[in-house]
Amino acid sequence: MAAGTTAGTTGGGAPGERPGERPEERPGERPIRVLIADDQPLVRRGLALILSPDPAFEVVGEAGDGEEAVALAHRLLPDVVVMDIRMPLLDGVEATGRLAREVPGCRVLALSTFDMDEYVVAALRAGAYGFLPKDISPEELVAAVRVVHTGEAAVAPRLMTRLISTYVRTPRRPEPPVVTDAGGLTRREVEVWRLMATGLDNAGIAGAMDISVSTVKNHITGVFGKLGVRDRAQAVIAAYETGLVEVGG
């Protein structure tokens, strides 16, 4: 499939369907629509060959740069965009930011040649739901696309914390941060937020606080809403930027 081409699309549409409108999604019936953006044709082809045989996925298009990825996302309305971070014309970080603003229905899974890359944090801050190094296995790619499609962050908690603690600058502060009551967070919510930022998953947070996993999930929902962040990655970035946790702390 060449860059910019589509698969499984028709020129018409269902009766009564407005131009640009997604078909009605019925659980178990519609495959996850994936757009692949990478400036290397062989990488695009390899990613497509991993996903296409699985009936749970439909690779609807390929893009060779960020500008083309944004344009195709507007036209094809994919569920997930697998986005290389470093591309010509418009890099993956800028493209991710535009998609988050302009096509919020699609979710970006960022790809990086290196697992320690400052561009990864920039992409997460811009709105990516997760990231993967390019040397991942096919099974890991499939799992990550599924996770991102559900709206969860496809980043291993400890790897995400290591990346963010390396590339996000923690402000110097002589006194405790003001974030303990930011946005009306309760003490429990602040503690959940802090533990999340240290790399614990939901089960780890539940064990550390001696509460149930469902209660942890409720607290995390409250944290996201009060901080005005969309996902776990952005919450962890905010924890470092506000000084709730510190690099090496």
TrEMBL record:
Superkingdom of origin: Bacteria
Official protein name in the record: DNA-binding NarL/FixJ family response regulator
Keywords attached to this entry: DNA-binding, Phosphoprotein, Transcription, Transcription regulation
Domain Response regulatory: from-to ranges: 33-149
Location of region: Disordered: 1-31
InterPro entries: CheY-like_superfamily, NreC/VraR/RcsB-like_REC, Sig_transdc_resp-reg_C-effctor, Sig_transdc_resp-reg_receiver, Tscrpt_reg_LuxR_C, WalR-like
Listed SMART domains: HTH_LUXR, REC
Modification 4-aspartylphosphate, positions: 84
HTH luxR-type domain location: 178-243
Entry-linked PROSITE patterns: HTH_LUXR_2 (PS50043), RESPONSE_REGULATORY (PS50110)
Coiled coil location: none
GO biological process: phosphorelay signal transduction system; regulation of DNA-templated transcription
A GO molecular-function annotation: DNA binding
